[in-house]
């Protein structure tokens, strides 16, 4: 089974709405409804979250619960680093998308000499920083964390000294250097960005295959072109946020956006991309069953998870 290890991260501390911590169990319920044996095939590792910080109240308006986020990212980072050192393939089931930063930091720490590419399938670019964020929600910041970007050219906020202290510590998890080069990011279906993010996308020439382009080119061509952009990368990490799906489907997620992918497109895309031998980790995030009816989002997400994993196993 290609040494696959399921990693469960029930963190929702960085999301704007509550409930993403329940997404993993919603996926398990969906698997039972499908009579799938998926969750009996792999031994899961559960990463310690810091959701208890939510009870304490937030002291950091421009980086909400950053003290707790720092703890979670360290936990995810050390878990993923250990698995990669053991040559395991992590399939990460996570709540809010901030924890992707810990995943990237862990992959890089295990193989610091290897150039890491990122395929980010999401409605959002997640390139904000405490200096630019309109919401303060840190699930909009993981790519900036790992590329060590502050984006002060577009600064609109004045974060407190304590916020900056934690932000600097987060950027240095796994070493004080950028874990990824922004040029080695490919966006798919990103369609809800703010000006500071657009500035960085333009500055670094980050490719974004918009939903319309995915349809016009076809899944095979988009996958081929994505992997071609990352041709100089030694390793590739794929992060799939369920809000990349169209808002007519993705009710059960915190920030649904119109004009997204269909479930079929998401399945084909992930199943195709994961065939590349350089892919070393795949992740699915932001299922929130509290916003849903009849666990619909989790059922779609589980189908994507199962078929993508099968594709990985078949092409190893």
Briefly, what is this?
This protein is of the alpha/beta class and 316 residues long. It is built from eleven helices and eight strands.
Polypeptide structure, described:
- 54% of the residues are buried.
- The chain starts with a strand and ends with a helix.
- It is globular.
- Helix 10 (263-273) links the parallel strand 7 and strand 8 (279-285).
- The model has no long low-confidence stretch (mean pLDDT 97).
- By secondary structure, it is an alpha/beta fold.
- It has 11 helices and 8 strands.
Order of helices and strands: EHHEHEHEHHEHEHHEHEH
β-strand amount:
5-15%
Q: Count every helix, treating DSSP H or I runs of 4 or more residues as helices.
A: 11
Helix content: 25-40%
Structural class: alpha/beta
Q: Please give the order of strands in the largest beta sheet.
A: 2-1-3-8-7-4-5-6
Instruction: Give the averaged pLDDT, no decimals.
Output: 97
Ends apart, CA distance between termini: 8 Å
Number of strands: 8
Please tell me what the overall shape is: globular
Largest sheet: 8 strands, parallel
Subunit arrangement of the protein: single chain
Poorly predicted residue ranges: none
What Rg do the Cα atoms give? 18 Å
């Amino acid at each position: 089974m290609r040494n696959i290890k399921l990693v469960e991260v029930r963190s929702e501390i960085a999301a704007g709405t509550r409930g993403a911590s329940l997404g993993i169990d919603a996926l398990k319920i969906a698997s039972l409804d499908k009579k799938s044996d998926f969750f009996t095939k792999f031994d899961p590792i559960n990463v310690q979250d810091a959701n208890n910080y939510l009870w304490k109240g937030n002291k950091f308006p421009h980086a909400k619960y950053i003290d707790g986020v720092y703890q979670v990212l360290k936990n995810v980072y050390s878990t993923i680093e250990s698995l990669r050192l053991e040559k395991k393939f992590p399939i990460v089931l996570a709540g809010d998308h901030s924890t992707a930063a810990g995943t990237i930091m862990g992959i890089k720490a295990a193989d610091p000499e290897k150039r890491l590419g990122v395929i980010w399938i999401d409605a959002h670019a997640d390139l904000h920083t405490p200096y630019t964020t309109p919401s303060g929600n840190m699930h909009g910041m993981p790519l900036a964390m790992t590329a060590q970007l502050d984006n002060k050219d577009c600064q609109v906020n004045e974060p407190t000294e304590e916020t900056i202290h934690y932000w600097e510590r987060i950027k240095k998890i796994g070493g004080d250097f950028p874990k990824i080069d922004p040029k080695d990011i490919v966006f798919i279906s990103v369609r809800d960005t703010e000006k500071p993010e657009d500035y960085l996308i333009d500055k670094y020439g980050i490719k974004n295959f918009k939903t319309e382009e995915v349809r016009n080119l076809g899944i095979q061509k988009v996958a081929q072109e994505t992997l071609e952009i990352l041709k100089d990368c030694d390793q590739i990490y794929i992060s799939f946020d369920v809000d990349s799906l169209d808002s007519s489907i993705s009710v059960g997620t915190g920030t649904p956006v119109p004009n997204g992918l269909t479930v079929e497109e998401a399945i084909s895309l992930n199943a195709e991309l994961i065939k590349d031998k350089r892919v070393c980790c795949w992740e699915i995030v932001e299922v929130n069953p509290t916003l849903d009816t009849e666990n619909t989002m989790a059922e779609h997400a589980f189908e994507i998870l199962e078929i993508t994993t099968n594709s990985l196993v078949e092409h190893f």
